[in-house]
Write the structure tokens for this entry.
Amino acid sequence: MTHVHAPGHGPSPLPATVARVFAIIPAHDEAAILPGVLGAVRRQVQSDRILVVADNCTDDTADIARANGVGVHVTVDNAARKAGALNQGLSVLLPTLDDDDVLLVMDADTEIARGFVDAAVRALAEDPERGAVGGIFTGTDPRGFLEQAQANEYARYAREVERTRRVQVLSGTASVIRVRALREVGRARGTLLPGTPGEVYDATALTEDMELTLALSSLGWSLSSPAACRTSTQLMPTVRALQDQRLRWYRGAIDNLRTYGWTPVTRRYVRQQVMLAIGALAMALYLTVMIADAVLGRIGFQPFWAGVGVLFALERVVTAWHAGWRGRVLAVLLVPELFYDVLLQIAFVRAVLASLRRTEGEWRHDTAPPRRRVPA
């Protein structure tokens, strides 16, 4: 698919007094954590403007949402995962909204920071060409090595976004999007954009947030992620859960890029995938050499490489500073995070192979026991 730009879509700036803000929250078996999530949202969005989409739930998610005073839509025969749930909810909600309204789209296992919505609305009001504002996600209080490694990874990602002011992905954890932009995406599906005409989200995409990022950018909308738009999301508690999550993320990204092809929008994402592939190869070669040297007894102290190692450890600590003292300790040890990086690269290689074989992608739902912390 070639890059498209919709000339003259003419988005008007949000009213200075702030447009109406609505929220849609797809939820699958989230009864345990939903009250805390809704509590954070209700401090920023009126209860009667919040819609929980209960998707294929086997618990009392819908009843708990109603008890918290918000609207509920129960999906019917949805086999398209989160994208399908959002499309069903939006089919009910969007007809009731004005073009100048904005919509908070967020996960049910995520809490938004105080001031998130106000910061997002201000960012949209600053630029009439800005179609959406994405959250910068951090992890909930990590327990154990695996979750702390994820928290460090998220802290580094947040630092990079703040430093470059460049949006990588319109995070599915929480984003605020112009209704006008969402409607434009729906109209472009099946012609300028992949997907079913009239649907906002591409139901075939494993990573619906990245696909929407590509869709909005391809239509000429700009995106941003202000520092104040923080979210706190659940961390994967086991190696299998982490592998499942990252396999979906990597596979979804690769498939999205294949669908869109080489365009001015996708080329930086394609380069990122190439760098991931090079990194995986370099890591495999490094580990091979290290193992060979250990077997042959050739490992010894070398001042130059020891100095390089110190500088590398310092960089890891600085970039993970906001992950707390546990994150800094993990970073300075180097080896545990090296092991974590290997886990991620294994998931990436699996995703590449699965994409080449065109096997059907899977979506598993597996998180740690709930513990809520509203990000600062």
About this structure: The chain has two domains: 21-135+171-235, 237-369. The first strand starts at residue 21 and ends at 27.
